[in-house]
Write a structure and sequence with these properties.
Layout: H1 2-26, H2 32-57, H3 63-88, H4 98-116, H5 118-121, E1 125-126, E2 140-141, H6 143-164, H7 172-196, H8 207-223, H9 235-241, E3 245-249, E4 255-258, H10 260-269, H11 282-285, E5 302-310, E6 313-325, E7 331-340, H12 342-369, H13 380-394, E8 400-407, H14 410-417, H15 419-436, E9 442-447, E10 450-456, H16 460-476, E11 479-481, E12 484-486, E13 490-497, H17 504-520, E14 526-528
Parallel strand pairs: 13-14
Antiparallel strand pairs: 1-2, 3-4, 3-7, 5-6, 6-7, 8-10, 8-13, 9-10, 11-12
Helix pairs in contact: 1-2, 1-8, 2-3, 2-8, 3-4, 3-6, 6-7, 7-8, 14-15, 15-16
Length: 543
């Protein structure tokens, strides 16, 4: 009955190991090397467990003896795969080299040959029945067995050390992965030691049963800790694949390491550099890089923009210099990180130029929207937007006057000479108004033949004087349009803030009413809407 239980235990252990190996193989895509190594370990353990099941089942000789010897190729293969598993833990991109695989395969091949030929030389097992493969439980360990055992345990220790390496600096998730695999390895290893020491007695070899625990731990690591999906990337792989140029410098300013991007950049900017760059002084490598090649560095990172000419092309490099420290904060040297920002800066400059162009276009469009296209004076919209703030700034203390100017009998010009001449008169009038009023005046075309002039700071007397100067110049000097001169007079209505009104609407209405009075009283006049303010007419103005 005891044999049946033992056989069942070994078979169940082998089944668990095979099942977990199948799961590992199914999830191998993310980490092929690790999954392959783990799968080989599990299948070899299943092989070992089935061989022990055959031994315990006690079939006819020499089957138990053959089963006992076949466990050793499995053990040799298992410990070799365990070393590969430890190596694969330290980087998702790790792949075994051909030399490593050949080296690890030597011992399993040799132990297979030695075990198969043991009946002739008895150097692996000896004692009663060893030569005839009878009753393997009575065999005694020979020297080559201990050599194999010592080699196997050395590889187990190496594998555990590889898995444990980097445990302290790993994130919590990766520490959990490593801990699970170490526990999974220690359980069967400890049971095997107990078996070799004879502690297990007649129970037999408990090691395969320990591997069942290993299978459960591995399954936990796969399902709960994503050991086959999430893996730390080896720092050397990260360093080699960083697109920025990275140089590590010793305290005395010599290069102690650099990534491929740094070497490519240095050889691009200085093609005559020697083949070996490690060990060279940074001043030699970075000649012409300005303060970047200084040997010292402050605790705070410093940024420098370096410009180089390479084959007629300008290269701009953003270089950051930082102190390189160990885990205890002690300075080890300096690290330089350089990034080619030529294209980025060019894009920034192009974008800045485009923004400036857009701003100029926006201003031009805004100006066009506020200009009369014929006379190029400001239009009614612009006046309405700006006269209000003028009144607000005046605060009923500083006067602001408005002149409403109208060309007398302008319709006759259009009817007699055509609209083209009429447009010419309007343009000439715009120029005459601009030349006759103060520089701070706001001159605009109000519509048709009407113009509005806003005079900041001018009271009614000053405004009438300016208006009469405009009227007088129009009366005295004809408008030149093409080769012809056209005599035109103007009528002007005047309104002043705050006397004639406190709002823009009030001032415009009062100035328009004053203009109506000037037209009604005979034209070629300057009028205010207030009767106490004298008007100006021909013969009473200034030249």
């Amino acid at each position: 009955m005891g044999s049946v239980v033992h056989v069942a235990a070994y078979v169940v252990a082998a089944a668990i190991l095979c099942a977990v190996a199948a799961v590992v193989w199914h999830r191998r895509s993310a980490r092929v090397a690790m999954a392959s190594s783990m799968g080989v370990v599990l299948l070899a353990a299943a092989w070992w467990s089935l061989a022990d099941a055959v031994i315990v089942a006690r079939p006819d000789d020499p089957v138990p003896g053959i089963a006992a010897l076949t466990t050793f190729p499995a053990i040799g293969t298992m410990v070799a795969a365990f070393v590969c598993l430890g190596l694969s833990m330290n980087g998702s991109g790790w792949r075994p080299s051909r030399g490593l695989l050949v080296g690890l395969a030597v011992e399993p091949v040799l132990v297979t040959v030695v075990a198969a030929t043991n009946p002739w030389h008895l150097a692996f097992y000896r004692g009663t029945g060893a030569a005839t493969l009878v009753d393997p439980n009575s065999w005694q360990h020979a020297p080559l067995f201990w050599v194999h055992s010592a080699y196997s345990y050395v590889l187990v220790v190496v594998g555990i050390v590889l898995i444990a390496r980097g445990w302290r600096r790993s994130p919590a998730l990766f520490r959990g992965q490593r801990s699970s695999l170490i526990v999974g390895a220690l359980v069967p290893a400890a049971l095997c030691v107990l078996n070799l020491l004879g502690v297990t007695g007649e129970f037999g070899d408990p090691t395969p049963l320990g591997f069942a625990v290993t299978a459960v731990v591995v399954a936990h690591a796969i399902v709960r800790l994503d050991v086959l999906e999430l893996a730390p990337v080896a720092r050397d792989v990260l360093f080699a694949t960083i697109a920025d140029a990275v140089l590590a410098l010793s305290p005395d300013g010599r290069v102690i390491d650099l990534n491929p991007a740094a070497e490519q950049l240095l050889r691009t900017t200085a093609p005559d550099l020697p083949p070996q760059l490690v060990g060279l002084p940074v001043q030699e490598l970075l000649a012409g890089w300005g303060e970047v090649d200084e040997a010292s560095a402050s605790d705070d990172p410093t940024d420098t923009l370096v410009t180089q000419e390479v084959d007629g092309r300008r290269i701009e490099l953003a270089v950051r210099r930082s102190v390189l420290r160990d885990g205890f904060g002690r300075p080890l040297g300096t690290v330089l990180v350089a990034r080619d920002v030529s294209d980025v800066n060019a894009q920034h400059r192009q974008l800045a130029d485009q923004l400036r162009t857009i701003e100029l276009l926006r201003r031009d469009l805004a100006e066009q929207a506020n200009r009369d296209p014929l006379t190029e004076l400001h239009n009614r919209r612009y006046v309405m937007e700006h006269i209000g703030p003028m009144l607000t700034r005046s605060g009923q203390v500083t006067p602001v006057s408005v002149l409403m100017v109208d060309i007398d009998r302008f319709k006759r010009i259009n009817d007699r000479y055509g609209h083209q001449v009429g447009d010419g008169v309007l343009v000439a009038m715009a120029h005459r108004l601009t030349a006759a009023v103060p520089p701070n005046a706001l001159v605009s075309r109000w519509g048709g033949e009407e113009f509005v002039v806003v005079l900041p700071g001018a009271d009614v007397t000053e405004a009438i004087a300016v208006a009469d100067r405009v009227r007088d110049r129009c009366e005295v000097t004809p408008f030149e349009v093409g080769h012809d001169a056209h005599q035109c007079t103007v009528s002007v209505g005047v309104a002043t803030f705050p006397v004639d009104g406190l709002t823009v609407t009030d001032l415009l209405e009062v100035s328009d009413r004053a203009l109506y009075l000037a037209k009604r009283d005979g034209r070629n006049l300057v009028r205010s809407a207030r009767p106490d303010v004298p008007s100006r007419s021909a013969g009473s103005g200034v030249g």
